[in-house]
Specification:
Layout: E1 3-8, E2 11-16, E3 23-24, E4 38-40, E5 54-55, E6 60-64, E7 72-76, E8 83-87, E9 96-104, E10 113-122, E11 129-138, E12 142-149, E13 157-162, E14 169-177, E15 194-195, E16 204-206
Length: 209
């Protein structure tokens, strides 16, 4: 199978093995309308089927929760201070981006709110910081954002939430993109987006919607 997108004067057209005449629009995963495609570098952002890619393995589980857009969240237990995942393949010459995530406390958690920290750092020594933003989580799901600022040349990091020992915490709909502002959530299940490999276990790309 194949699909090709071409853009001229901010209009996009595509052809594919099933649409053989140029048709206005674009292929899933491609930029459209003069807008370049963006990538979510989180490989299992909404844990629809498993918690693969999330850590620490011994302290997390996948739970059903109606507050999660996918219906599922990663829950970390109270004994660990962090829940995180790894990102890689980020362009070496791009320095700024955004980390976004939905986070909330389980309904039966003993506290009603807690300060936590959105965090990111190089995946190995010298562990350069990529992101740090303190926010307050409650039992109502909120979307939180942290600006990513990384050194030129670095392409991979660990990213997630820290400073959360002593509480259970749920997260879902994670996004890391080399974009600005507060982008909406996207993954390979979003309209006109596509997974760049195995669904729910790979990066995903598509146009800003």
């Amino acid at each position: 199978t194949y699909c090709l997108t071409a853009t001229t004067s901010n209009k996009s057209y595509y052809i594919s093995n099933t649409t053989t005449s140029p048709t206005e629009g674009g292929c899933s995963g491609h930029g459209q309308g003069g807008v370049e495609a963006i990538t979510n570098y989180i490989r299992n952002p909404s844990v629809r089927t498993s918690v693969v890619q999330w850590l620490p393995v011994a302290n997390i589980s996948r739970v059903a929760d109606a507050q999660a857009a996918s219906g599922y969240a990663v829950e970390k237990d109270a004994s660990t201070y962090q829940v995180y995942t790894a990102v890689s393949g980020i362009p070496a010459n791009v320095q700024t981006g955004v980390f976004a995530i939905d986070a909330w406390l389980p309904a039966d958690e003993t506290v009603s709110s807690r300060a936590i920290r959105l965090w990111g750092e190089t995946a190995g020594p010298p562990y350069n910081g990529w992101a740090s933003q303190t926010v307050t989580v409650t039992k109502t799901k909120q979307r939180f954002y942290a600006v990513i600022t990384k050194p030129i040349g670095e392409t991979s990091a660990s990213i997630g939430i820290r400073d959360s020992s002593g509480i259970r915490l749920r997260v879902s709909a994670a996004f890391v993109g080399m974009v600005s502002g507060q982008p909406a959530y996207y993954d390979g299940n979003s309209p006109n987006w596509d997974w760049n490999g195995t669904p729910d276990n790979s990066t995903s790309s598509g146009p800003a919607l």
